[in-house]
């Protein structure tokens, strides 16, 4: 009706759609070229042992800064890579780079690496990971793979057998973003995760809100019951860090401790991990 009355809205709609399609095609092209030229690289966010205040490892987070488009977040290019069938290739490259970086760190510092749900349908995944470990010389026991619950709602049988292969190789498996998805507790307890990461959305209002605090405490108790160490994601304030430390959360991650930084900076941070971070720990115990 609108289009009939006046051609303009339809034309606008059409040109709007075309420019969206054009934008998407441009982004896809930019992505393909970035992938080819290794312009998408892992940065590293520290994981802090809340008991000691020390860095226990780093999580690799993919970063892409495009010449003209600027910084494009992984929440945009990871789904794009999945959609156009290039997630395996991207992941392989990021993983090899991350393993190489991790071999430069002291042997007690772990590497956490995210796998996307579609990779957990690839039966060759564990071999792929093992090949890269042996090529780079990184010990499997220093590696922790992070997966989300989404892998469990796709093909559970395939995902479970792939995860078993990964586990058998000595690689640990963490359940990421816990508390946002289906949170099928039966599956979570069956799958024997080595770590559960509490999604940062559960930390919003956590210090002020008694109910929210009870929820996080219950999740940590749940993890303790299963004997699985818990990591809280998205710690932004000393108040949150202190509370989590008090309720016995093993590990923490968030802007309060540090954002993801380039490999060279992560490397430089490590010699400081006792002095600098014990300062942070002082902050924690003062608050
Ligand atoms: P994730 O694995 O849950 O990673 C944590 C995300 O939370 C990161 O966002 C990190 O920068 C952000 N974050 C950490 N601390 C804080 C905080 O205190 N406050 C706030 N507001 N945010 C915080 P990022 O890097 O944008 O990554 C988003 C998601 O993209 C990741 O969530 C992960 O699912 C995915 N991703 C990132 N890199 C990779 C990768 O190499 N491979 C795959 N498959 N997925 C990746
Ligand atoms: Mg993660
Ligand atoms: Mg997460
Ligand atoms: Mg996430």
Structure in words:
The protein is α/β, with parallel strands linked by helices. Helix content is 49%, strand content 18%. An 8-stranded mixed β-barrel has the order 1-2-4-5-6-7-8-9, surrounded by 5 helices. Strand 7, helix 9 and strand 8 form a beta-alpha-beta unit. The longest helix is centred in the first third of the chain and has 30 residues. The N terminus and C terminus are likely disordered. Bound molecules: ligand C2E and magnesium ion (MG) (3 copies). One magnesium ion (MG) binds next to strand 6.
Tag the structure with descriptive keywords.
binds ligand C2E; EAL domain-containing protein; 12 helices; disordered C terminus; binds magnesium ion; transmembrane helix; transmembrane; membrane; 287 residues; alpha/beta; eight-stranded mixed β-barrel; 18% strand; disordered N terminus
Low-confidence stretches: 1-6, 281-287
Determine the mean pLDDT.
88
Radius of gyration: 21 Å
Order of helices and strands: HHEEEHHEHEHHEHEHEHEHH
Number of strands: 9
Strand order of the largest sheet: 1-2-4-5-6-7-8-9
Strand residue content: 15-25%
Rough outline: globular
Task: Determine the N-to-C terminus distance.
Answer: 64 Å
Structural class: alpha/beta
Bound molecules: ligand C2E, magnesium ion
Query: What does the main sheet amount to?
Result: 8 strands, mixed, barrel
Q: Helix count, per DSSP?
A: 12
């Amino acid at each position: 009706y609108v289009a009939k009355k006046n051609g303009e809205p339809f034309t606008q709609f059409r040109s709007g759609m075309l420019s969206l399609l054009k934008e998407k095609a441009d982004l896809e092209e930019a992505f393909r070229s970035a992938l080819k030229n290794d312009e998408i690289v892992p940065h590293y966010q520290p994981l802090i042992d809340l008991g000691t205040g020390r860095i226990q490892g780093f999580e690799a987070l993919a970063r892409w800064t495009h010449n003209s488009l600027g910084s494009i977040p992984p929440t945009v290019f990871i789904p794009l890579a999945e959609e156009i069938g290039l997630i395996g290739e991207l992941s392989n490259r990021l993983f090899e780079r991350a393993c190489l970086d991790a071999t430069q760190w002291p042997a007690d510092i772990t590497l956490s690496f995210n796998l996307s749900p579609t990779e957990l349908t690839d039966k060759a995944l564990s071999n792929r990971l093992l090949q890269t470990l042996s090529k780079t010389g990184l010990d499997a026991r220093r590696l922790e793979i992070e997966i989300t619950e989404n892998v469990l709602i796709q093909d559970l049988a395939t995902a479970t057998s792939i995860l078993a292969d990964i586990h058998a190789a000595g690689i640990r498996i963490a359940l990421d973003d816990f508390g946002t998805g289906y949170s099928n507790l039966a599956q979570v307890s069956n799958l024997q995760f080595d770590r559960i990461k509490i999604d940062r959305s559960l930390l919003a209002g956590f210090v002020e809100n008694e109910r929210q605090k009870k929820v996080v405490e219950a999740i940590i108790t749940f993890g303790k019951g299963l004997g699985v160490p818990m990591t809280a994601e998205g710690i932004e304030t000393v108040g949150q860090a202190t509370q989590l430390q008090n309720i016995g959360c093993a590990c923490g991650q968030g802007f309060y401790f540090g954002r993801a930084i380039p490999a060279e900076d992560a490397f430089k941070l490590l010699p400081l991990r006792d002095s600098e971070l014990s300062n942070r720990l002082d902050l924690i115990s003062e608050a």
